[in-house]
């Protein structure tokens, strides 16, 4: 999910009035910040292992040190101020009502995040970036009424051998980290699962480094999952800084054996149509919006129309039916296609695209 709780909520889909409005940490009921979301549900694809149901959310909350108006010109300056953002973020997370929260770019962990989220029954684990100047990191919160903490592993990619000395890698430290946590449902110590909260390097020019970071996370998560008597299933969640056509996504959904939760478990398909109807006429004023410009593997959005087809989940045809190759009820090989990912999880003036994921896998072999 994106980092601005104000500006993106009304951009995708129809309002789902069946989703309950949550309660923020203040205990006061608020106007829904999720009213613009279209919710997707589907039965578990891991029925043989899914004996416990829980809700997990991944969110890059944007560290306040990075919330500069020059970087977020589509956001109102007052919306970037911490006094406003912190209230909106707490309201949004309370409404999402997750059992496990994977947050990236978390600063002020002890003074704000742990203090406030503990009021809603969360316990937290934190891994700060290995830098004196970058004071954010990854934080994983879980409901203490549902889970018990088993163990954790913090990963600093700068100190992982496989991520060092790569040809074409940057000569500077990236200070990216991951936080791996092993949790178990209360009263079910043998039903552990591993949650890997990830923040990969941002620069698309260093795809090799990002693949090395992704592989390091997968290996560490598999080791942690095997450290208990019964190997645990693994959930990867976070800001992968990699679009669906990237080598990182291809590796994770291919060789590494993970399935994208959105692509695999998300959109429920409408009934098939014999003859698709024509596309509905645009309901917005006729305004010229220049096409996006591709630079490397980043799409630079220039005046993108929020009502354009770019804002439909990728893979939907104009009549909102699914083409066969990315039908969500198709076999996993098809349904994990990049075409089934959402149109974007990050929307800024210079970039829009899907770079945040929740991915799942069955337990690794013993």
Structural commentary:
With 366 residues, the chain is α+β, with helices and mostly antiparallel strands. The protein is globular and about 50 Å long. It has six helices and 14 strands. Strand 12 (346-347) and strand 13 form a beta hairpin.
Beginning-to-end CA distance, first to last residue? 33 Å
Spell the H/E element sequence: EHEHEEEEEHEHEHEEHEEE
What is the strand arrangement across the widest sheet?
5-6-7-8-14-9
Subunit arrangement of the protein: single chain
Strand count, sense and barrel status of the largest sheet are: 6 strands, mixed
Uncertain runs are 5-30, 45-50, 267-336
Helix count, DSSP H or I runs of 4 or more residues:
6
Structural class: alpha+beta
Shape: globular
Number of DSSP-assigned strands = 14
Radius of gyration: 20 Å
What's the helical proportion of residues? 10-25%
